[in-house]
Amino acid sequence: MARIVEMVGSPGVGKSTIFKAIQAKSKSSFNWETALEPMQQPEAGVIGKLKILFELVMYGKGYVDAVKLKQAKEASDRFVAQYSEYIDACWNNLYHRQRSSNNRLDLRFEKTAFLNRMIQKVQLLRESPNNKTVLIDMGLVNIVERGLYKSTTASEERLEIRRLLDVMPLPDAVVYIQTDAAENARRLLMRREVRDYHRSLNTEELIQCTVKWQERLNAAIDYLEEKKVPMLHVDSKNPIDENADRIIDFISKPVTPDDLKYNKQLKLVY
């Protein structure tokens, strides 16, 4: 089974930029690969087929392959059966908290579709016969806030995040991309394509959103470190190539017996 390493970081922190730099350095002979690696032919392997699934089916670029759509739907169904508590939390979040976003737009449909794509990606990777380490630039840890709905204080929210991580599938390792909130907001403002939930927000509002996202991610990262999930902290202000090389070195390391022991306790399968 694939060993999944998730890149985690607030929107605009630089995950995609570093991820693309890592993609450019990848070779088929490596013991790792990226989950969105460009493919040339349909028979390019498991990751290539995932590329088709998410780029052509889920994002609707030109046509819909009924077989792959059925595979994606079945993957969602298996995930729901295995992680019903997590799904309940996500639905409660949509019902109680997502009626209006920070810019007062109702994005429940978009957020539901995005969550479904993440679930399908994670489930298919976990079930794939691939024995390589697979780096993904977005996963369920990064969107841990999508399952929060009970808490009203910061301390309650940290506890809710810990409980949520206990009922969802976790990656085998994490790369945490960080920068300060002001720099993060500046990068969001410079984006060529502004995400719906950031549209029309000013700098101060973007900083506030980023601080909140970082607080939640920090709570998740602290708990994952307690659980002994291997972790690499990366400062996105460092040169992109330098960060890419550090991450490649991290994900290229062989899995140790201790890694297997910890991940067995977390109910992850190889």
Give the tags.
9% strand, 270 residues, five-stranded parallel sheet, single chain, Rossmann fold, alpha/beta, AAA family ATPase, P-loop_NTPase
Task: Describe what is shown at a glance.
With 270 residues, the chain is α/β, with parallel strands linked by helices. It has helices at residues 15-25, 46-58, 66-82, 84-96, 108-127, 154-166, 181-190, 203-226, 240-252, 257-265; strands at residues 3-8, 32-34, 133-136, 173-178, 231-235. It is built from ten helices and five strands; from the N terminus they run βαβααααβαβααβαα.
Tell me what the structure shows.
By secondary structure, the chain is of the alpha/beta class. The protein has one domain: Rossmann fold (3-Layer(aba) Sandwich). It is 53% helix and 9% strand. The protein is built from ten helices and five strands. The chain has helices at 15-25, 46-58, 66-82, 84-96, 108-127, 154-166, 181-190, 203-226, 240-252, 257-265; strands at 3-8, 32-34, 133-136, 173-178, 231-235. A five-stranded parallel β-sheet has the order 2-3-1-4-5, with helices on both faces. α6 packs across α8 (203-226). The longest helix has 24 residues, at 203-226. The N and C termini lie close together (4 Å). Residues 37-44, 56-62 and 262-270 have low confidence and may be disordered.
What string, H for helix and E for strand, traces the elements in order?
EHEHHHHEHEHHEHH
Which topology does CATH recognise?
Answer: Rossmann fold
Give the end-to-end Cα distance, rounded to a whole number of Å. 4 Å
Radius of gyration: 18 Å
Number of strands: 5
Q: Low-confidence parts, pLDDT < 50 over ≥5 residues?
A: 37-44, 56-62, 262-270
What shape does the CA trace take?
globular
The CATH architecture term is: 3-Layer(aba) Sandwich
Structural class, by secondary structure, is alpha/beta
Overall average residue pLDDT: 81
Give the helix level as a range of percent: 40-55%
Give the neighbour order of strands across the main sheet. 2-3-1-4-5
CATH C-level class: Alpha Beta
Domains (count): 1
Instruction: Give the amount of beta strand, in percent.
Output: 5-15%
Q: How many strands, what sense, and barrel or not for the largest sheet?
A: 5 strands, parallel
**Quaternary form:** single chain
How many helices in DSSP terms?
A: 10
